[in-house]
Every structure is written in C-alpha cells, then in structure tokens.
Amino acid sequence: MAQYFAHVGIQFFGFDQRGFGKSGSKAGDLGDNGGVDNVVKDIAAMNRLAMIDGVKHFMFGISMGGMHVLNYCLVHNQDGHIAGIISDAPALENSGLLVPSDEETLFNNQAIVEQWERDDLCLNYSTLGTLVDMYTVGPRITARASDFITPFFAGLPDSLDKKLKIIENCPFHLELADEYTQWILSRVERDS
Question: Bridge partners of 189?
C-alpha cells in the first residue's frame, strides 16, 4: 500500500508495531506490543516525526493497526491534527475467540492465505496482554462511535454484518488502493 500511495504522490511513513514485524524479531518480543497505552505513545511519536506544517496528515492501519489508529484519533484528535483515517479491516469486533483457529478466517483469497503462512513475521500467537487489548479496545471504540470526530474510510471484510464494499478474491485489499487514494485526495482538495 505504501508503494501505491507513493506512486500517486502521497508521502507515506510506516512503522512496525512493537512486538510485530521486524522490530519484534530483533527485540525478541514477538507478539507483545507492550499494551495499548504504549501503542498510542508510539503512534503519537511517529505523528510528531511525520507531520509537516501546512500538509494534511492521514493515518492508515490494517486489522489491529486499524483498531489502533481509530483508538488514537478517538482519544487524541480533538484538535483535528489528523485530517482522516483509513482503517482497513479494523479489529473492532470479537467473535468469542481471541485468535482465529486458521488463516482461512482472515482472508477469502487462497493466494493471500498461502503468502501469510510462508511469512515468518505474520504471527498466529500473541501475549495475553496484547490479546486482552485486542478483545477490549475494539468494543470500546464501537461503544464511543458517536464521539468520533475524525473522518474515516473503513474497508471491512465480507465476514461482518455491515459492508461498505465487498471485493471477491481481493489481493490484500489492493483493489481498494485507488478508492483510498481518491478519498484522501478529495479531502485535501476540498479543504484547500
């Protein structure tokens, strides 16, 4: 997604959440994000580094990252420094299970499932603290939806009750990249 945004002229900064991706591998704490409060602090620090005066700032997150950017803006964007959020398949609801029993529940595209299975950085485990955060923060965000002032675009998987758009055999939501881009650019142009 970052390459797509860069290709259309949108500057994109990203980072691995504590305990996940390459940073978790290096630190030896895979699956432990240190708690939602630390994640919010990390997001705030990244925002301070990435913000450019006079340029609108948007946030993007997938799954647990989608939940975290929504949580950050719900709690820390009363001043409107974030112009909008794209939250792709945000982890807002739980189905009674803390972790899916297999990757088939995550994606409807078999090629993506196979890619996920081969990637050492895609985890099927986490620490209890991280799982508790995932289990409680999403419903807390949903319960406070009426307090949410930041515009957002949510790409929801087809397993949820409410659907914004369903794309069959979507290669990890890349078909939505153009829609995400147009959504960002429309907000930049509209308010300029």
Answer: none
Give the containing element (helix H, strand E) for 84.
Answer: strand 84-88
d(CA 46, CA 59): 11
Residues 88, 62 contacting (CB under 8 angstroms): yes
CB-based contacts of 164-169 (< 8 A; 24+ apart in sequence): 168/108, 169/108, 169/109
For residues 103 and 76, the answer to whether their CB atoms sit within 8 Å is no
Which residues are 88's β-sheet partners?
62, 155
> By C-alpha distance, which of 122, 119, 105 is closest to 158?
105
Q: For residue 90, give the nearest of 116, 117, 70 by alpha carbon.
A: 70
Q: Tokens 């803390």, residue?
A: 98
Spell out the domains of the chain, with CATH numbers in brackets: 2-156 (3.40.50.1820)
60 Cβ neighbours under 8 A, 6+ residues apart: 1, 12, 69, 85, 86, 87, 88, 180
pTM for the predicted model, two decimal places: 0.74
Would you give per-residue pLDDT tens digits along the chain (192 residues)? Answer: 778 888 888 888 887 777 777 777 777 777 778 788 888 999 999 999 999 999 999 999 888 888 899 999 998 888 889 998 888 878 887 644 444 444 444 455 667 667 767 877 666 667 788 778 888 888 888 888 888 888 888 776 554 433 344 445 444 455 677 778 888 888 887 665
